[in-house]
Amino acid sequence: MRRANGLPTLGRALSCGGASTEQRLVQAALISTFSSSSSNSHIFSQKLADRLGLSRPSLERGVAGTMLFSVAASSLAQDAHAKEPPRSKKFLYNEVVLYQYEACPFCNKVKAFLDYNNIPYKIVEVNPISKKEIKWSDYKKVPILKVDGEQMVDSSDIIDKLFHRINPDSSIPDDGEEKKWCQWVDNHLVHVLSPNIYRTTSEALESFDYITTHGNFSFTERLVAKYAGAAAMYFVSKKLKKKYNITDERAALYEAAETWVDALKDRHYLGGSKPNLADLAVFGVLRPIRYLKSGKDMVEHTRIGEWYTRMENTGGESARIKE
């Protein structure tokens, strides 16, 4: 999970990698949250919209987006010498720019790849309400990566394209172990995160406290996002539990962590002596939740901590260019 923030345009806003069904769930929960917050939900919503300078329908759609996969935490910078240098001089570029939400797990997947391969990149934090930073693009989700002006979208596709540019003579097996676990990350692991980070009201507030202090929000948006967003996502997480047949949130998270450790088969990494794309994908997705209560519980109650620490050390310092 650090990454993603805000409230009023959260419905369509936090399309971090794309999850339209979940966004509809968030919308429904937010509308019910507004309804229960006032005896006259229309007046309450309209006042909120007026305060933020938005139309009421835009507000109700908005609260949904940033939350779904907005998972939070900070990543530690480690020794740079452990990082993987760029593998091909054929991959030449002048500027790499990542448009992101800080807590979005899919954005963190891309950053894990860029950091490990020591590809310097700039960050543009997108406001999930206005999305003004990506008005230029027909694609209205994050992550978006621009390499010398060329747009790349969808985290897995971005990583696949970058991999082939760095390794023009290599290919990822279509049916191999590496691809299998990359797909497992997108199809399973990410779905157990939201029910865990919003499992209780206190955990929901913890998550949004991080989210609202690390994203691109105005002061008013930050206040609304923290409390209304946490309340909405608490209820949404219950619907996500049902959708993905999760009976116990923590048990599902622990099982996923143990499943990954079993896949390592006593290797340092799934890739053997060094991380492969699956290692980077799992690490990137988990990084936003690592220092939340859910992530701390995961490390305490499963065997994943040793591998995770190894990945922190191997990943090295962020390749992000500070401006």
SSE layout:
Blueprint: H1 10-13, H2 20-37, H3 41-52, H4 56-65, E1 96-100, H5 105-116, E2 122-125, E3 144-147, E4 150-153, H6 155-166, H7 177-187, H8 193-197, H9 201-214, H10 219-243, H11 249-264, H12 277-286, H13 293-301, H14 304-315
Parallel strand pairs: 1-2
Antiparallel strand pairs: 1-3, 3-4
Helix pairs in contact: 2-3, 2-4, 2-10, 3-4, 5-6, 5-12, 7-12, 9-10, 11-13
Describe the structure concisely.
Pathway: Lipid metabolism; prostaglandin biosynthesis. The chain has 323 residues and is mainly alpha-helical. Helices cover 53% and strands 5% of the residues.
Overview of this structure, please?
- Pathway: Lipid metabolism; prostaglandin biosynthesis.
- Belongs to the GST superfamily.
- It holds the Pfam family GST_N_3.
- By secondary structure, this protein is mainly alpha-helical.
- It has helices spanning 10-13, 20-37, 41-52, 56-65, 105-116, 155-166, 177-187, 193-197, 201-214, 219-243, 249-264, 277-286, 293-301, 304-315; strands at 96-100, 122-125, 144-147, 150-153.
- A 4-stranded mixed β-sheet has the order 2-1-3-4, covered by helices on one side.
- The model is unreliable at 1-15, 26-41 and 58-82 (pLDDT under 50).
Report the radius of gyration as a whole number of Å.
19 Å
Which spans of ≥5 residues are poorly predicted at pLDDT below 50?
A: 1-15, 26-41, 58-82
Query: Largest beta sheet, briefly?
Result: 4 strands, mixed
Give helix % range: 40-55%
Tell me the number of helical segments per DSSP (H or I, 4 or more residues long). 14
Shape: globular
Q: Which H/E pattern describes the elements?
A: HHHHEHEEEHHHHHHHHH
Mean pLDDT, as a whole number?
Answer: 79
End-to-end separation = 25 Å
Number of strands: 4
Strand composition percent: 5-15%
Name the strands of the widest sheet in spatial order. Answer: 2-1-3-4
Question: What structural class results from the helix and strand content?
Answer: mainly alpha
